[in-house]
């Protein structure tokens, strides 16, 4: 019990930890609003207020987050030239997303002209979706390389069983994390497409709600202290 509490404290001390918790509030309240809209208008109204306040809180809390992408661009992580190139594109898109998200937040709260909100939302979502596409491609390439590395390790004859098992455990652990990243990025891509090109599927409340929760809980898993 104490270990779980300690892990929760560590998780909530992280910027990403708080973001995933508030994101859970945001999309749970979106689904509650949709469900209660036709049966209980009072609960639906409260859920909508919770959703809006959670969304705005997340935007405020992410102030300066684009610098993370700038730092990642500077480092250009990746084990191969292809992965480094994909990382540059992915982080550039994410940097655009977080940078213009600031202006979207300011226009939503009335500090800037509210009429700018739609334009800022489009630019931010476009950068977001651009980045997520390359993050997803990078993760699939890394997953493929991980499978190849696992086969190579299993066929090694000059390595002890214990060392083989340890290497395979690390490879499989990394695979789970990358699968969580793919799930989160695909879910966020659906949400971004709903802003860029509204359509019945992506913009349906259930689609957005489930996508938001998949993204939040995948991120929760990836950020939870080991």
From TrEMBL:
Primary residence: membrane
Subcellular location: Peroxisome membrane
Pfam families, per the entry: PEX11
GO MF annotation terms: identical protein binding
Membrane topology: Multi-pass membrane protein
Keywords for the protein's UniProt record, in alphabetical order: Membrane, Peroxisome, Peroxisome biogenesis, Transmembrane, Transmembrane helix
InterPro entries: PEX11 (IPR008733)
One GO BP: regulation of peroxisome size
Positions in coiled-coil regions: none
Keyword Transmembrane: yes
GO cellular component: peroxisomal membrane
Transmembrane stretches, start-end: 83-100, 120-142
Record's subunit section: Homooligomer. Interacts with ARC5 and FIS1B on peroxisomes.
Similarity annotation: Belongs to the peroxin-11 family.
PANTHER family membership: PEROXISOMAL BIOGENESIS FACTOR 11, PEROXISOMAL MEMBRANE PROTEIN 11B
Role description: Involved in peroxisomal proliferation. Promotes peroxisomal duplication, aggregation or elongation without fission.
Protein name: Peroxisomal membrane protein 11B
Species, as recorded: Rubus argutus (Southern blackberry)
